[in-house]
């Protein structure tokens, strides 16, 4: 996503917003609905698809909502491909849904356009905002205003092969240095100690572990000495110690696949990896642990999605009722009950037992200190440039410092060109 789209988006959104202002309800106001008095209000919910179990869980949650709100019908729209491109086009054209999914990665740029409805004035004390994991909620806030409530999330945890660990006679590492040492004992016969994803979405918290900042004042800063020093061990483990590999180097499609094929003894993966392994590699003996500490500090990534309201919706009251239910305790419990997604509310995670779950407990523990995958409107540009050059260093084609300094310069050049 280039920042240039935001300029045209903002201008077109203002035009669309002006055309719709006359028929949109005021903040928290009554809904408009066609037909005779007493007819139902139909609202549209848009999101991307999931596996059949997830789709069934969502439909069950929506059915429960409609049963409790018989005056509201929810029309679910599943956008299978190019979700954000489709959503931006529809919002610009004044044809956006009333409520829709928004990834934290995309949130800052979309908030800036003004197309999202601020939600704070709708919130009641019973909604219990303090129940949300703070870092996940803050991903959808700007200047103290809340534009979305997170529906689910995943952090990263250390997945480790119990059989390989037992055979090698090593313990589960608790520090990054221990993980490097353990990787040596676990590497051999086509198996790597550590399966790594050389991309910013997975390495962001590592990059900032020595006090550096990947993004500073909405500009790329990953060429700084602190960031380079923090990331150098990732490069050295692959090119010098040769105890790590990325999935493509062993013919795997992902970190989870590499781990499931037992080509890596350890990987950092999210909650999505648990049902995947259960279905695809049911005989695999594995465990999870919190991500090993770096420089004495805990760290991990968090990926989260919220429900947001279209500021141009004509049915704000009904739209808020839907968001309130879906991200409330009852609706969230239904949605996350099978473990495909983790609840962003602490009380729901506790009620469902995820904090004490043998596999998911490590993921839940990371929520309070995780770095959320979201930082400013230019993160997509920054990410693209980082990934292009970090991979070249990971593969040994050029020194890390040279690669990242060049990538930072290119990223900031693109950002300035799009301002």
UniProtKB/TrEMBL annotation:
The keyword Signal applies. InterPro entries: SBP (IPR006059). Belongs to the bacterial solute-binding protein 1 family. CDD domains: PBP2_UgpB. It comes from the Bacteria. Residues 1-21 form the signal peptide. Keywords: Signal, Transport. Residues 25-50 are annotated as: Disordered. This is ABC transporter substrate-binding protein. The keyword Endoplasmic reticulum does not apply.
């Amino acid at each position: 996503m280039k920042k240039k789209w935001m300029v045209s988006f903002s201008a077109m959104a203002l035009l669309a917003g002006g055309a719709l202002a006359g028929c949109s309800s005021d903040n928290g106001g009554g809904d408009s609905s066609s037909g005779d008095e007493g007819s139902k209000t139909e609202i549209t919910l848009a999101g991307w698809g999931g596996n059949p179990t997830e789709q069934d869980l969502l439909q069950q949650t929506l059915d429960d909502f409609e049963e409790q709100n018989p005056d509201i019908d929810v029309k679910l729209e599943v956008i299978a491909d190019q979700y954000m491109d489709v959503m931006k086009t529809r919002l610009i054209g004044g044809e956006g849904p009333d409520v829709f999914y928004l990834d934290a990665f995309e949130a800052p740029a979309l908030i800036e356009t003004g197309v999202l409805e601020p939600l704070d004035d709708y919130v009641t004390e019973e909604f219990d905002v303090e129940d949300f994991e703070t870092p996940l909620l803050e991903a959808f806030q700007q200047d103290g205003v809340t534009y979305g409530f997170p529906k689910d999330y995943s952090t990263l945890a250390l997945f480790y092969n119990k059989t390989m660990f037992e055979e090698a006679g090593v313990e589960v590492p608790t520090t990054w240095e221990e993980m490097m040492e353990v990787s040596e004992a676990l590497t051999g016969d086509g198996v790597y100690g550590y399966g790594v994803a050389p991309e910013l979405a997975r390495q962001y918290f590592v990059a900032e572990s020595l006090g550096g900042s990947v993004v500073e004042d909405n500009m790329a800063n990953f060429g700084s000495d602190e960031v380079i020093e923090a990331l150098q061990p990732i490069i050295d483990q692959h090119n010098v110690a040769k105890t790590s590999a990325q999935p493509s180097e062993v013919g795997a499609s992902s970190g989870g696949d590499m781990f499931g094929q037992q080509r890596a003894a350890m990987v950092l993966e999210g909650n999505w990896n648990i049902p995947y392994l259960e279905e695809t590699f049911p005989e695999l003996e594995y465990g999870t642990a919190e991500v090993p500490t770096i420089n004495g500090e805990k760290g991990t990534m968090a990926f989260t999605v919220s429900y947001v309201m279209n500021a141009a919706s004509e049915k704000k009251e009904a739209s808020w009722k839907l968001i309130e239910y879906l991200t409330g305790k009852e609706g969230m419990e239904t949605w996350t009950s099978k473990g495909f997604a983790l609840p962003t509310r602490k009380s729901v995670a506790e009620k469902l037992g995820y904090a004490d779950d043998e596999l998911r407990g490590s993921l839940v523990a990371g929520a309070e200190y995780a770095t959320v995958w979201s930082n400013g409107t230019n993160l997509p540009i920054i990410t693209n440039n980082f990934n292009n050059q970090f991979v070249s260093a990971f593969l040994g084609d050029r020194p890390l410092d040279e690669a990242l300094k060049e990538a930072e310069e290119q990223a900031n050049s693109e950002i300035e060109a799009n301002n």
